[in-house]
Amino acid sequence: MIEAIFQYEFLQNAFLAGAIIGIIAPLLGAFIVVRRLSLIADALSHVTLSGIAAGLYLGQAVPSFGAVNPLYFGMIFSIGGSLLIERLRSVYKHYQELAIPIMMSGGIGAGVIFISLADGFNTDLFSYLFGSVSAVSRGDLFAVMAISVIVLLTVFLLYKELFILSFDEEYAKASGIPSKAVHFAFIILTALVIAVSMRIVGILLVSSLMTLPVAAAMRIAKGFKQTIWLSVLFGETAVLVGLFSAFYLDLAPGGTIVVTSIILLLVIIMWKKERN
């Protein structure tokens, strides 16, 4: 595959995009898991699916939309879904967890409608659902690179605020941190990362890349910063091993990446158990 990467543009796109996603997805995932919002990635991935299906439908129904990458529709829907989740969390103050299944149900329902309008499943939609090595375009790669820069800068500049907000929201508010603004920025970044990750991992599996490496890191890390570094290491390992496996075995990369993440998690759990 190393030689093929230098020969074929689609492999360069997939390899570089996967390597970047292997960093930013677990990075945000560490904050998501600590805040006990792991299922929010699932909800936003289903909302993103409805956006992708809407983009594919509009591409068929309106010729002028045919040249627009459905990824951008997915981003718009994902951002809108993240903002709606926050709105629902404020409506159900004592039952905030209801916001996630409500949005997940809405995303699935809208996705099914748009898929039906677009005459059912097709090759493009399957590549979004389960990931594809050959489907990552140069435009997709540029989108991943742009969002990764925004994510890294935001985490670097707002690390203290995100850390405090993740562990003690009440203290964050009392200490003068603009918790609502920081949280909105974080949730929008999460939505964007989910949207751009689906070409590699697939919409139905992208949440796994944000949680499984973190679950493995938490078993052996001695602090939050170490959890982040180990999460990124495990995420990157899962993506690269998964991409190589998908290329040689002709499989969907989403499945190989997730299975690799699970194997890493099981190995670490057993190693930790033996050590104890």
From TrEMBL:
Q: GO terms for biological process?
A: response to zinc ion; transmembrane transport
Q: Which Pfam families match?
A: ABC-3
Q: Where in the cell? A: Cell membrane; Membrane
Q: Name one GO cellular component term.
A: ATP-binding cassette (ABC) transporter complex
Q: Which SUPFAM superfamilies match?
A: ABC transporter involved in vitamin B12 uptake, BtuC
According to its UniProt record, where is this protein mainly located? membrane
Q: Which residues cross the membrane?
A: 14-34, 39-58, 70-86, 98-121, 141-159, 180-197, 228-248, 254-271
Keyword Membrane on entry: yes
Could you tell me the membrane topology recorded for this protein? Multi-pass membrane protein
Asked if the keyword Signal belongs to this entry, the reply reads no
| Organism superkingdom | Bacteria
Which key words tag this protein in UniProt?
Membrane, Transmembrane, Transmembrane helix, Transport
* UniProt record similarity statement: Belongs to the ABC-3 integral membrane protein family.
Q: What is this protein called?
A: Metal ABC transporter permease
Name the lineage. Answer: Bacteria, Bacillati, Bacillota, Bacilli, Bacillales
